[in-house]
Amino acid sequence: MTPVVEGRAITRDYHVPGSLFARSREVRALKGIDFRVDKGKTLAIVGESGSGKSTLARIVALIDAPTGGELLIEGSVVDIRRGRPTTEMRAKVQMVFQNPYGSLNPRQKVGDVLMEPLVINTGLSAAERRERAEAMLRKVGLQPEHFGRYPHMFSGGQRQRIAIARALMLNPSLLVLDEPVSALDLSVQAQVLNLLRDLQDEFDLTYVFVSHDLSVVRYIADEVMVISKGEAVEQGTREAVFANPTHPYTRQLFAATPVTSVAAIRARVAQRNALRAAQGAR
Amino acid sequence: MPVLTIRNLTVRFATATGSFTAVDGIDVSVDKGEVLAIVGESGSGKSVAMLAVMGLLPDTATVTADEMSYDGRDLLRMTERERRTLIGRQITMIFQEPVASLNPSFTAGFQIEEVLRLNLGLSRRAAHQRAIELFTGVGIPDPEEKLRAYPHQMSGGQCQRVMIAIAIASNPRLLIADEPTTALDVTIQKQILDLLMKLQADYGMALILITHDMGVVAETADRVQVQYKGKKMEEADVLTLFENPSHPYTRALLSALPENASGDRLPTVSDYFTEGAAP
């Protein structure tokens, strides 16, 4: 089976302009990343700030071009350096951003947000566009009467639903999600993660899910890639990576992630009480 | 004996569409040497209650309380001058955005030495010495050099260390940390939390940690207070809260943690808790 998206030795350099005091230089943000994601699966890209995970997401979403390497979508090479991707290719890959407050135009009604991709990419009539937009609102758990409202009338979780709905309007096969739940409250995060699961099942979607939160990754991912300083230091199935992290950086990430198990809390409380008793005895 | 006691605190904001109650009858009390976590989602009023203690709310806010006292002294009725001898000295606070909390136009050294000279009356030279000690204490490498650095020349984690150094400079008895690690990477978060816990134990100060992150609560708190829409839902020691949460909202929050997912779906707050239901 051809993977929905495949990357071969993807590199990306950023040019840092010189100043009065410093020579200009190139920074290599991605140092040769290989990956593939099969249909209906989720690849989670995990890393800390500056690791290059968002750079990779933007390359996969056809927003930025890689400096070197090849990107294949459904088996065919896509190179946006050589020309704009075709409309069909654009429709296949869509993106959802981290901040639902910044990614929706405040002057655009929700209905127009959802219909715009159809206006640009399809020849549907106005009535058909409206029908599809209302159907999509229902799919993401909103109401058709939300059609005429503005983004500021919605909560963060609802806005993220709108952003997801917009990304799905053109029936994409690949959704690139860059930290889609990190700006949301815990309870809302759970709802949006459930929604992403349901939509994946219903439309057989493939996800590239960028996150720094290991507990979210453990919940949503099939495959995990840990990247640090532009290199994929660990790649494997979720089970393998979580059960047996091999790279020191992955282990460090796991060790730093807070544990909410009762056993761990009990151990910590006991340790603290012992320390207090020792201090009191002194 | 509690360091800080608050009874029936209410904070209202005057808005264009009328009065909005952000904090609705909250009690808070924290003992010497204790770590209290105040946990809640956005809009729960967890920050606003503590900003009221610090006197950092804008003029549109109306603060009322039956009692708000620090170490037996009434914070509500004391003069501004008296208040200033406490706030920033005995009660200090650090914030979510460490880079934004520092003044970008001055070096880290100037900002910490200013606190040491004004609040503790140290001489320029003594302040400089003490600043080096404090920077070393909070784990900043090359403290002499970092004193000359501007905030933009340091990472977020380092700026938060500078903020912590400033906050503990006057040897406070109560430190309020408002989401101190939310803007930081998880490995840096771990370092900052470890540092806060170490300092809290070494100085024997009370620590109020405001957070939305149940993981942070699990790793730090002695006692936890859960807030929702300006009201206190539950208060318990940390083990009881995680092991046997009594309020539906707390149960909902804990079950929404992705690591507690059983099966395919995450339970959401609305599965457990409907708004307006009796708490």
Provide a count of the helices of chain A.
Answer: 10
- CATH class call of chain A: Alpha Beta
Radius of gyration of chain A: 22 Å
For the largest beta sheet of chain A, what order do the strands appear in spatially?
Answer: 6-7-8-3-9-10
Protein architecture, described:
The complex is a heterodimer of chains A (282) and B (279). By secondary structure, chain A is of the alpha/beta class. Chain A has a single domain, classed as P-loop containing nucleotide triphosphate hydrolases (Rossmann fold), CATH 3.40.50. Chain A is 40% helix and 23% strand. In chain A, the strands form two sheets. Chain A has a six-stranded mixed β-sheet, sandwiched between helices. Chain A has a four-stranded antiparallel β-sheet with strand order 2-1-4-5, with helices on one face. In chain A, a hairpin with a 2-residue loop joins strand 4 (68-73) and strand 5. In chain A, helix 4 crosses helix 5 (156-168). The longest helix of chain A has 20 residues, at 262-281. Chain B is built from twelve helices and eleven strands. In chain B, the strands form two sheets. A six-stranded mixed β-sheet of chain B has the order 7-8-9-3-10-11, with helices on both faces. In chain B, strands 1, 2, 4, 5 and 6 form a five-stranded antiparallel β-sheet that branches. In chain B, helix 5 (124-137) packs across helix 7 and helix 7 (156-168) packs parallel to helix 8 (186-203). The model of chain B has no long low-confidence stretch (mean pLDDT 91). The chains are: A alpha/beta (282), B alpha/beta (279). The A-B interface holds A 48-49, 156, 185-187, 189-191, 193-194, 197, 212-216, 218-220, 252-253, 255-262, 264-266, 268-269, 272, 275-276, 279 and B 33, 41-42, 185-187, 189-190, 201, 212-216, 218-219, 222, 237-239, 242-243, 252-254, 256-261, 264-270.
